[in-house]
Amino acid sequence: MTAVLVSLSQSQNEADSIGSKTVELDEVVVKAALVKHDSRSDEYVLTSELCQGAASVYEVLSRLPGVVYNNIGNTVSVRMDRNVLIEVDGVQVPSEYLQALPLSRISRIQIVYAPSARYTTEGIRYVINVKLKNDFVGHDLYIGNYTMISAGDNNGSDIVANEQPKIQYIYSGEKFDVTAGYGYGTIHWNYPISYSRNYTGIASVNTADAGPKSPNDHNGTNSHAANIGIDWQIAPYHILSLRGMYHNDRINHESVYNAALKEFQNDSDTDYRETSIESSEADNISAAAYYQGVFHNGWSIYSALGYDRLRDNLRSAYSGLNVYSVNRHRNTKDYIRGELDLNYSFNDAMALNFGYRGIWNNYKTFNRDNNQLLSKYEDNRHNGYAFFDWSFANSLLLHIGTGVESIHNNSFNSKRDWLNFLPQTTVTWQPSENVQLMGEYTARMEYPSLYQVSASPAFIDQWLIQTGNPQLTPSRCQTVSLQATFFDALILGAEYVHSSNSITDWYEKSDGNRYLKTFTNARNREFRTVAAYEWTITKGLTWNNIIQWQWQEIAGHGLANHASNLSWNSNMEYWIKPIELLVKVEYSREMQKIPLLQGWQQFGQDLWQLSLRKTFINNSLSVSLNYVPPIHIGVRTAQKSCIETPSLNLSQNLNLRTYDNLLMLRIEWRFNKGRNKQRQVQQYEFDSEQKQDKGLL
């Protein structure tokens, strides 16, 4: 890849280089000189101390204040907020590229707490920009494999739960950069689940408890992923880029229960075997082209045009007592996006940022047996925005402006239009080198995902059917937040979020003895406080903590419900220099109770982890071993849900002891060949269609 071409509105006064400010006294690094603060971001110089024992940029990120990397889910959060975009030299890249990137190529990591309008108008709260050294022309090759082993025999007959080999090639040239990669994943994960369902006046169903040694919920996935990218420096500070990605996923989910049925009308009891199967065969292709340039008269420009295509063949089958049902459907997505972002810098203190984003998004659901169109959800979105930035002495920044979003929605049997104003104001103040303060108000739009509007039905049992709701509406989400950072070690924050039409689960009685699980819009309010602290106890020994308290309320249809959660991530790392071994102990309490209009459900999990990491052959070979011990102190060992309505009561219990004695082995080999040089790029992203799951592996 290449160096950064930064939007002037975001980093107009940034120096070309922080320079080497590291001061070494008998190998003791003066850390204060390794961080550069401005009114928008913190920028960290990658030193040997920061990188010691780390194999990838993800592991370096986890050492920065307020940043948490979940190595099981491969997710990154900043101050416990997952609305994070990671770029390399201003470009969003595949996770395979980030994993393959040698740490020796990285100069600095910038965490942007006040991104420009191009990001914030789409709900991105934080941008992490990995900046390369720009001193290499040549080839990098990455070969890696990630394996999960159920050493405690808690995953049924599947001892190997996860196998993910991948390869990534990177060429860095004088005028051209090229990257291409391929990855394959096979996952076989099994959970023990039991449930109870009570249909008022009709029947009740209870299943036998299942344990980790005999799981009854089986999940299998086979995935292929390929990516390619080309960057061409057509002139100094002018970059033309192409990106393409292909994903092929084959997913099969099968649940088998030994159920006990009690029918109230004839007062009978029956034991039977219940099986439900959901399968998906999805092909996803995305491609984009962008241009970004900086002109000497104060102007900079960013433009992008992209297309995303998804075809997903679904099959659901249910077999129970005297009931057998099969449904075959196809979900499709066609998404076109164009964007133009302009920045003009009046002087070192004032800048104007304005732009336009147009999106056409079309969701459809077909019956695969007769090709009948079952549902349609088409959006035409037009967003124009203008923002003014004023900074004083690089310590005080005012970012103020508004976006205007016009939405035309054409669903299967209705047409709807909305017009929303999306104002934003950010004030950041750095009264001293050791104190940074920020206050922010933002408004943005949130849209339903494909699975939430798809009319493809799936039997949960002989009475309950699950389907999407094509009548869902977009939601206007407003956020007010305050944050403070002290001495690059202590972070405090508070945030209030209000969503007018958030999407939540909804259960209702249908015709006869049928019940429906679907989605509905409801008002959502959240308040959370966050504290993060990093403590270097002694040379080579660090302790990172981040804790969050959250309160959430959901209201609608004459109902209201709320829940509160305390989340915590704590890890201690020790670098044993004589043998160059990194030892890490981590505790994460991340299971959350999510309120629903008619009950609640839990999401995520709690874990203890022990990690060992060592490099060989001049750091070209890295071996990491993570172990989840069967320690249940502070760990909730079941993920539960509960629904209560006048006509329906549901509860479910998922046993999480299946993670006991889990081993995770990552082996990575990096080759490179080239010479030194110098040179400069941008970003793009598509809407994610990932269905919200249990928050587990």
UniProtKB/TrEMBL annotation:
Outer membrane protein beta-barrel domain span: 324-627
Subcellular location(s) per record: Cell outer membrane
GO CC terms, sorted: cell outer membrane
InterPro entries (UniProt xref): Beta-barrel_TonB_sf, OMP_b-brl_3, Plug_dom, Plug_dom_sf, TonB-dep_rcpt-like
Principal place of residence: membrane
Source superkingdom: Bacteria
Chain ranges of the TonB-dependent receptor plug domain: 52-121
Entry keywords, A to Z: Cell outer membrane, Membrane, Receptor, Signal, Transmembrane, Transmembrane beta strand, Transport
Pfam families for the chain: OMP_b-brl_3, Plug
UniProt membrane topology term: Multi-pass membrane protein
Molecular function GO labels: siderophore uptake transmembrane transporter activity
A GO biological process held by the record: siderophore transmembrane transport
Protein name: TonB-dependent receptor
Protein species of origin: Candidatus Amulumruptor caecigallinarius
